[in-house]
Amino acid sequence: HGGSPNHRHGFAASIAATISSNVGFGVSLVIMDATIVNVSLPVVMADLGLDGADAQWLNASYALMFAALLLTVGRFGDLHGRRKVFATGMVVFMASSVVAGSSTNGTMLITARLVQGIGAAMIVLWLLSRVLQNNVLLALAGLVALLAFVGGAVTILVALCLLAGAGHVVADLG
């Protein structure tokens, strides 16, 4: 029943690779988002007329929701399934990213960032719960961290190039 041991091993490896790439993508989104916001903050402030307090809320609303909901979302994942929570988190995060990208004022953007923090907590929950459950998954966590790091580094470079190409001064290195 179930095919040869080699076939089952190949299928399990395929599923593990698919899951790790999806989780790696999700965690990369969370890291890249924070990087993009920080790099583009001066431009966003100018375009939307934000002051210093608004800029602080832009990052704080995301961080507060992310940190505050990790335990609550973890329990929700225990009750309803972590994969469902992860998938829902991806949808919430991406939808709120669209809203953030199309924001026309500071309140809309800060609210979208708050919702992104909720989605981010739901995404990261899956990785944390899997790593803490099984030491074998520490290798997977390392792979996901590597993917997230590379994704974040690429995002910084792309954002800097886009801002420089748009004629904005990114940083005064002199």
Share in helix: over 70%
Q: How would you characterize the largest beta sheet?
A: none
As residue ranges, the low-confidence spans are 169-174
SSE succession: HHHHH
Give the tally of β-strands: 0
Distance between the termini: 69 Å
Rg result: 19 Å
- How many helices? 5
Mean pLDDT, as a whole number? 75
Q: Beta-strand level of the residues, as a percent range?
A: under 5%
Global geometry: globular
Structural class: mainly alpha
Characteristics:
single chain, 174 residues, mainly alpha, 86% helix, globular, disordered C terminus
Kindly describe this structure.
The structure is a single chain. By secondary structure, the protein is mostly helical. It is 86% helix and 0% strand. It is built from five helices and no strands. Helix 1 runs antiparallel to helix 2, helix 1 runs parallel beside helix 5 and helix 3 runs antiparallel to helix 4.
Summarize the structure.
With 174 residues, the protein is mainly α. It is built from five helices and no strands.
Annotate the secondary structure layout.
Elements (H helix, E strand, L loop, with lengths): L4 H44 L3 H29 L1 H20 L4 H28 L4 H28 L9
